[in-house]
Design brief:
Blueprint lengths: L2 H6 L3 H22 L6 H14 L2 H21 L8 H35 L10 H18 L3 E9 L1 H8 L1 H18 L5 E6 L2 E7 L3 H20 L5 E9 L6 H18 L4 E6 L2
Parallel strand pairs: 4-5
Antiparallel strand pairs: 1-3, 1-4, 2-3
Helix pairs in contact: 2-3, 2-4, 3-4, 3-5, 4-5, 7-8, 8-9
Length: 280
């Protein structure tokens, strides 16, 4: 993690104070050095810091603060005793430079954040995608190894989904997927994660959930799916559910076991739930 990422995690008020301090510090140094050496790049540091870590409004505030600091240095040096249009123009250009920098930096950060969200979000359901789900499972594995809290993951596949697409069209298939996502979201806690892995496969991550609690959640999900989905579409669900009291060493082991149980349920009879508790 680099310095900017570390600063971005600090409270906004603290970053703002730090940026103002840097602005004052640069102005003081500029007053000592004089106009023999230009300190424009150093004035940009607090502006960029505020725009990136706090936001556009605070970035604009720092833009004016740095411009005022620069102006104070010029007044102290007596440059305004014979000021002309060119000097006023240069000061306006400096302020415009700071404001433009703030606008560009804040827009760049917003674009990167949107791209980051889109890269981890399923476009159809708005849920986390496979990449995001793997990252969350990896984080839960680390937590389990440190605190020994159990966790449960589940893989869910829609039986006969292809038949819906073939007979009723892909728009109806999309509507089915959205309904499944809605039902799953309403069946779990806020701390739980539901992801669409692609196609007609969904996955769940249930932190701090042992085998007994996982069975209760699974039964609730099955009931909600039957009431709100299976009664409206010619589909059923195959589910693989694994509770880990102790996490395996690799994420492939963790996810692979749930995936195999789901396919076992699908191969055996469909419309089934296969569960397992892993202690070691």
């Amino acid at each position: 993690m680099n310095l900017v990422d570390s600063l971005a995690k600090l409270p906004h008020w603290l970053v703002t104070v730090l940026a103002l301090f840097l602005c004052v510090a640069v102005s003081v140094v500029d007053g000592i050095v004089g106009h023999v050496h230009s300190l424009v790049p150093f004035y940009l540091v607090p502006v960029i810091l505020a725009a990136w870590c706090v936001g556009r409004k605070i970035g604009y505030l720092l833009s004016f603060a740095c411009s005022l600091g620069w102006l104070a240095v010029e007044i102290k040096a007596g440059q305004f005793s014979n000021a002309n249009f060119a000097m006023y123009w240069n000061d306006a250009i400096k302020l415009s430079l700071f404001i433009l920098t703030t606008t560009v930096i804040s827009a760049l950060k917003d674009a990167l954040e949107r791209e980051n969200v889109l890269a981890r979000t399923d476009h159809l359901t708005g849920m986390p995608n496979r990449r995001s789900y793997y990252e969350m499972v990896a984080g839960e594995m680390r937590r389990n190894l440190r605190y020994y809290d159990p966790f449960t993951i589940a893989y869910l596949d829609i039986d006969n989904f292809k038949k819906v697409n073939d007979t009723k069209g892909h728009a109806e298939g999309d509507r089915l997927l959205k309904q499944v996502a809605t039902v799953l979201s309403k069946s779990v806690r806020e701390i739980d994660t539901i992801a669409r892995l692609g196609g007609d496969e969904f996955a769940l991550l249930l932190p701090e959930t042992d085998g007994e609690a996982a069975d209760i959640v699974a039964e609730k999900i099955q009931q909600q799916l039957k009431t709100n989905v299976e009664n409206n579409w010619p589909v059923t669900f195959s589910i693989g559910l694994v509770t880990y009291l102790k996490s395996p060493a690799t994420i492939d082991e963790v996810i692979g076991r749930a995936d195999r149980l789901m396919y076992a349920a699908k191969t055996a009879s469909k419309d089934a739930l296969h569960r397992e508790v892993v202690a070691e």
